[in-house]
Amino acid sequence: MTVMMLASAMLIAGCSSGAGNDNAQPASTTASNVTMTAAQRQHIRLHTVAPTTFSKTIETTGVVDFDSDQATSVLAPFSGPVTRLLVSPGDRVRKGQALAIVDSPDFAQAISTYRKALVTAKNARRLADMDKDLVQHDGIAPREEQQAQTDAASAEADRDSALQALASLGVDPQVINDIHAGRPVSRIEGTIRAPIAGTVVEKLITPGQLLQAGTTPCFTVADLSRVWVMAQVSGSELASVSVGDPAEVVPGIASKNFPGTVANISALVNPDTRAVLARIVVENPGDFLKKQMYVSVRIHSRQQSKGLLVPVSAILRDDENLPFVYAIQRDGSFARRHVTLGYRTGDHYDIADGLKAGDQIVVDGGIFVQFMQSQ
User: Fold this and answer.
1) Helices (H), the chain
2) Which of 67, 162, 280, 325 could lock 260 by a disulfide, CB 3.0 to 4.6 Å apart?
3) pLDDT per residue over 303-327, tens digit each?
4) Which pTM was predicted?
5) First to last CA, the chain
6) What number of CA atoms fall less than 13 Å from residue 156's CA on the CB side?
7) Between 3.40.1620.10, 2.20.25.90, 2.40.420.20, 2.60.40.3500, what CATH number should domain 2-53+306-374 receive?
8) How far apart are CA 40 and CA 46, in angstroms?
9) Are 49 and 358 in contact (CB under 8 A)?
10) Can you give the residue ranges of the CzcB-like barrel-sandwich hybrid domain (predicted)?
């Protein structure tokens, strides 16, 4: 019966029956073990288990978001109805570029205030200079001259404050120069301007909409040359992820991967997924990555781990789908050894339990050994 089983196994493996008879070995004392001839052993490859140092790669998913350090929400700086929109989502804008026009009484009031403050400051300074000359010739009391200087300084402070108000509202510098020079200016409309250079990614207002100063969001402008990817990291893998770890973002489109770096790890756990968000900063040439895009993420941990790594090809499954390997015994036979699979790195598994350093296992030809055992 044993001879018939070995003959069948050799036939499957492509061995000649003559070679098997010449190299026959005594049967193992353990009935469930597998013994093979020298010729049959040529069809398998062994691996000696040894402690190995490796770095983990955490594979997960993430969502693309704007880099909040390079994106801003543009609020209405003044009240009034929108008369014109000058940009659309997707348009690139420079810093200070006009985004929308508003018929704003706040705007007109700020210009009027500056005009008045400018005239008042000029007159107050002129009077203060005259009093300074008069006090030197005993024309007025020093107290009156000091009061004139105080009034002039106060008027100039009001003028500077009114000028600052115009600048904060985005008034064209040329209009300010015309007012300062006393030149007439045409009817001035309120202009909402881009606070930073970038891309208009959101338009939140429509013509005719009434804006409230400081509260109505109008646009979102973002520099899309760099984005954030918010990656989900499970609790079991959190200890392997650190700020500064390199990462890869895989959008799954056009076979293009984007390198990045872990910049932040959240201190909070998502109550629904029990995962922690890791923020990955990614350069985004060509604005390829879009907000809310789902991507795959690989985080390459810089921490060194130690374990018993065996090739994936060594792992087989029994009738209950439990993983096992074939390990060589002292008598030269091969026996099943059930193992507990740990982290997978590339084509290797870290064996958490079931093997020890120095064990020799089958890493190529395990199916052949399994067939022989089943006969």
Assistant:
1) 2-13, 17-22, 38-41, 105-136, 142-169, 173-180, 366-374
2) 280
3) 888 889 999 999 999 889 999 999 9
4) 0.63
5) 10
6) 12
7) 2.40.420.20
8) 13
9) yes
10) 72-223
